[in-house]
Amino acid sequence: MNDMTPTSAERAEKLEGMGCKRKRVEDVRFTQGKGNYVDDLKLPGMLYGDLVRSPHGHARVKKIDTTKAAAVPGVVAVLTAEVLKTVNLAWMPTLAGDVQMVLADGKVLFQNQEVAFVVAESREAAADAVELVEVEYEALPVNVDPLKAMTDGAPMIREDLKDKPDGAHGKRKHYNHVFSWAAGDKAATDAAFAKADVTIREFIVYPRVHPCPLETCQCVASFDKIRGELTLWGTFQAPHVIRTVGSLISKIPEHKIHVIAPDIGGGFGNKVGAYPGYICSIVASIVTGRPVKWVEDRIENLSTTAFARDFHMDMEIAATKDGKVTAMRCYTIADHGAFDACANATKWPAGLFSIISGSYDFPAAYCLVDGVYTNKAPGGVAYRCSFRVTEAAYCIERAMDIMAQKLGMDAAEFRLKNLIRREQFPYTSAFGWQYDSGDYHTAMNKAMETVDYKKLRAEQKAKREAFKRGETREVMGIGVAFFTEIVGAGPSRACDILGIAMFDSAEIRIHPTGSGICRLGTKSQGQGHETTYAQIIATELGLPADNIMVEEGNTDTAPYGLGTYGSRSTPVSGAATAMACRKIKAKAQMIAAYMLEVHDDDLEWDVDRFRVRGNPERFKTMTELAWAAYHEVPPGMEPGLEAINYYDPPNFTFPFGAYICVVDVDVDTGETKVRRFYALDDCGTRINPMIIEGQIHGGLTEAFGIAMGQEIHYDDDGNVTTASLMDYFLPTAVETPHWETDWTTTPSPHHPIGAKGVGESPNVGGVPCFSNAVNDAFAFLGSTHIQMPHDHWRTWTAAEKLGLHG
């Protein structure tokens, strides 16, 4: 080998494969304003749809008069539930096995519910006509409190279900009851509590919040009457699911439905399900024979599309006097709004909430969740988390702090005493989950050492003394959180949506010149898929990442997949990508052996080539083999170099992290200043460190928003009081703290490349870390638990209740 021959390391670096801080290829178009979003789409003859919405939280619809609206110049049609009934589309199925009104049928069940759909030549004409639709309502009693939903005399939300004792998930015990779901061993848990030295019990509320993506939900429907085909462009996180649901609802054969998700401006779970605006646009296009565009505004998005959280958790932990946990149990009431439209896997009506034992070695555990109907908008999606995992992480992390406080132990030391040990992996939790891998103590100790935890506690002690002496009006809080997330839905034995297993897919085609295209069943909403999937292929096949095109979102070309949410892209489609690459690689090896006149087993892989063992000067690069695949294959072998893989994971993956936050709270104003936030994440194999860091920054910013101000709030009459960004807190660069990021690497043993997923972890761990910091600030004054969100007013109120204002 001469001195000019690139080394293996130099060749690997040139590929920009896994581990490389490759710049996001998507940003070339995004930073120049050249993204291709739904609202950019303009079709010949396109009409515009707008929705009439209810001002009431609960009312009977007595009459709808569309005469004046239909007379507005430019108005083409006005749809109501009565019109939709003629095509059997007045109700639609939800992903959770419930049904939901498309347009109000007899009643409205929440404020801003869809009542009528106006179709016009322009957005302006449609908006004018919406104001002229006359609806006569009879107001009904309202309930927005899930704790009152199953009381005697509570307003009946769903009259369509009043005579149905069974729901999609078993027996219903009240007319406002959706489901009961339990996990764990109740008897063993109760026995552990009965003999426990120390117990704590706290009512912990994770309030209703909203993903609030930058781009609202929208679509364009175009029905071709001649061919009987529907094309639907939209903001869909799971395009194939939308196609299947669309076929089931409309009875249009699935092969005649074409769903396209172009660039999406954020999803965070908000764009997984189907909304009435989509159905109305489809019906309007069928009726008019013209394309119909529907774009919701911000108030519509915040007040009617899928919410998140709204879990009301009665949480208990049992422990020994020396601080070893022995059991946990939790009873939860989950507010599902007027319809059960959660985007959970079918078998998990409460999502993966049974991850609530967290990162700790609980010998016994039990949880029970009751879902209820209220006069709120439906939803219950995984806002930047896996299904209900954030609720579970927040609950256990707050409860661990409360127990540490009762025991008189340091919060971090208490966690270290109870974390699952490295030698216990793979670890089966008291709820039956098998955690794939972890090194929790290393992560926790690294976090504590990096922030100099002991010094912080010494500083806090001194400041508390100063506060007691009246020398300062600020209190210092140190928040600690150690979370484990369960992602990568999922194994078909455990996960399906509407009966479709939650596998995912990748189809890779290598062209003769050595470039290629990869099509996948996922759909990026800003995660950088076009960059990272190409890096997996670069490492697996030895082809430069720049030579690989990644394509998602078109059901005509992409293999069937379940979409992107719950941090499932890398754990599932990333695995499918690697497995498809290995099929291609195996074929390439046979071609190389044929060309080099050796046996397959005589070859070894070296970055971007197969070389003869013991004779490295004889080799064939993957680029050479790609050319040969189209003209020089062994006898009997099919030409070409492509493969497809549908990957059904054997297990979930379990990323984890150790977070520490330092805050200073002014007790006179309630203002909380985040002095420092350190986030250590372990997501297994790291594909692109720069994208990981960006994902963590984004997730932490959303966690900051949730913990410190976000809430979709309803008054007693069912009015949404936080339905615009005037009232719903969305952090900007002004409020957002500085983030310190760090990592450890514990690969998943069952994943082809060891990756676990990371995009949602910072939201899962960040929320309890902020909340623990604020609560810790007041703990020395006798406070046990202050509910989120920790905005100035609530924090000031907490200080007032503690008598800190004289």
Number of helical elements: 19
Q: What shape does the CA trace take?
A: globular
Strand order of the largest sheet: 3-7-1-16-13-14-15
Radius of gyration computed on alpha carbons: 28 Å
Overall strand count:
34
How far is the first residue's CA from the last residue's CA? 82 Å
Summarize the amount of helix as a percent range.
25-40%
Model regions low in confidence, pLDDT < 50 over at least 5 residues: none
Largest sheet: 7 strands, mixed
Plain-language structure description:
α10 runs parallel beside α18 and α17 packs across α18 (761-779). The protein starts with 7 loop residues before the first helix and ends in a 5-residue tail after the last helix. The protein has 19 helices and 34 strands. The chain has 806 residues and is of the alpha+beta class. 56% of the residues are buried. The model has no long low-confidence stretch (mean pLDDT 96). The strands form 10 sheets. A 7-stranded mixed sheet has the order 3-7-1-16-13-14-15, with helices on both faces.
